[in-house]
């Protein structure tokens, strides 16, 4: 079974062509394995004995204990229906966007469920140790075992629709089906390394991350794969792209690598995660990357918020209260009478509000803005500073 190490969610500060990752406050100290969003605001992180939830795009998180052990994978086929798979051979289901989760047991077995994929609310697949593949067509009430032809662990499964899917696993194994799993055909991977994560930008372009720095790429929907050169030997547990060119892979020893040319070349990033920890999952949501790690850390990149200038925090400027629900004030300790220009930039890099603050007027009304993470850009003459603002109502 995949040795998982947890990823820290943090905020990235753009520095030249590289990014520095910083932490988001996490309410949970145990290992975090997977992260997935229902929509732009509502998302979940799976941990050893807890589910973490956000309702503001990942700015803040709450934790709820669960009886199941080690959530490995989420799949959300609709705005309200979702599933997760975990180590004690349980697939759990929600029909109310995660308020309540109910266990669905796919044919009692000693094997862990490492990944789930539901192309529809009723049809889904669960994979795991010892070549396990199971399928449901009634929303998890009953499950049928499929013949994978494997005896080693299947780490990840991805379905494009109810018929076409790919699963990957230990020893460089890749299996593909076009008939809903009635038959699974072996696809050459070009490696014998364990394969841990699969990500598709569309039905043609996809990537796989695996052991000793392995990254694979397909441009024909997984029919053939090419091995890319990453220049590292750390195991990679997760991979994600924002477009055809820019993406990250992350894994053991706190390692994050980045490409801006579709995987042809890779450079190492400073993740801020201890080399004793692993980064287990990384996603792209709201124009930023978010990742989770061992020992409850969460990280995200603010650089993708689209600000034209480098983000520079300055202790002379205070934005409060933060988080806020309706307004915030700006204090500039060097000169309280200085005129300040304040711009508020949303997660899409769009300037949503501007205001001039002078004299005793130091308050900005944000009642009209939605919940989420914003960048507050403050300028006065040659001085400029940028602060993160959380709006939570």
Quick gist of this model?
The chain has 393 residues and is mainly β.
Describe this structure in words.
It comes from Flavobacterium aquidurense. GO terms for molecular function: hydrolase activity. One of its GO terms (biological process) is photosynthesis. One of its GO terms (cellular component) is photosystem II. Residues 16-103 form the Photosynthesis system II assembly factor Ycf48/Hcf136-like domain. The model is unreliable at 2-17 and 303-313 (pLDDT under 50). This protein is mainly beta and 393 residues long. The strands form 9 sheets. The chain has a 5-stranded antiparallel sheet with strand order 1-2-29-28-27, with no helix packed on it. The protein has a 4-stranded antiparallel sheet with strand order 3-4-5-6, with no helix packed on it. The protein contains no helices and 36 strands. It folds into 2 domains: 12-305, YVTN repeat-like/Quinoprotein amine dehydrogenase (Methylamine Dehydrogenase, Chain H, 7 Propeller); 317-391, Immunoglobulin-like. The chain is globular, with a radius of gyration of 22 Å.
List its traits.
2 domains, 4-stranded antiparallel beta sheet, 0% helix, PSII_CF48-like_dom, WD40/YVTN_repeat-like_dom_sf, hydrolase, photosystem ii
């Amino acid at each position: 079974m995949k040795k998982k190490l947890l990823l820290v969610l943090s905020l990235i500060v753009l520095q030249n062509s590289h990014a520095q990752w910083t932490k988001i406050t996490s309410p949970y100290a145990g290992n975090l394995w997977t992260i997935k969003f229902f929509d732009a605001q509502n998302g979940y992180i799976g941990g050893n004995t807890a589910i973490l939830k956000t309702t503001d795009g990942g700015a803040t998180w709450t934790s709820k204990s669960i009886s199941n052990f080690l959530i490995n994978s989420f799949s959300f086929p609709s705005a309200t229906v979702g599933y997760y798979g975990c180590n004690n051979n349980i697939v759990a289901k929600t029909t109310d966007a995660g308020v309540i989760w109910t266990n669905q047991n796919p044919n009692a077995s000693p094997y862990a469920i490492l990944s789930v994929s539901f192309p529809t609310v009723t049809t889904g697949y669960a994979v795991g140790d010892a070549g396990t593949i199971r399928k449901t067509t009634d929303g998890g009430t009953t499950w049928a075992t499929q013949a994978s032809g494997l005896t080693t662990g299947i780490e990840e499964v991805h379905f494009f629709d109810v018929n076409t899917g790919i699963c990957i696993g230990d020893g460089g194994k890749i299996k593909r089906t076009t008939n809903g799993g009635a038959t699974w055909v072996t696809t050459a991977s070009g490696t014998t390394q364990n394969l841990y994560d699969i990500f598709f930008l569309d039905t043609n372009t996809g990537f796989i991350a695996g052991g000793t720095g392995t990254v694979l790429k397909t441009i024909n929907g997984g029919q053939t794969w090419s091995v890319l050169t990453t220049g590292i030997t750390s195991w990679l547990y997760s991979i994600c792209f924002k477009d055809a060119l820019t993406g990250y892979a992350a894994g053991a020893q706190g390692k994050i690598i980045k490409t801006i040319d579709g995987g042809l070349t890779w450079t190492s990033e400073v993740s801020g995660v201890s080399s004793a920890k692993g980064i287990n999952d990384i996603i792209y949501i709201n124009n930023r990357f978010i990742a989770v790690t061992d020992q409850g850390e969460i990280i995200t990149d603010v650089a993708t918020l689209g600000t034209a200038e480098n983000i520079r925090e300055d202790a002379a400027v205070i934005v409060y209260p933060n988080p806020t629900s309706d307004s915030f004030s700006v204090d500039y300790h060097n000169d309280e009478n200085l005129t300040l220009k304040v711009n508020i930039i949303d997660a899409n890099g769009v300037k949503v509000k501007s205001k001039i603050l002078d004299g005793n007027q130091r308050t900005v009304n944000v009642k009209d803005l939605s919940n989420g993470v914003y960048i507050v850009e403050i300028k006065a003459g040659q001085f400029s500073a940028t602060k993160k603002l959380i709006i939570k109502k």
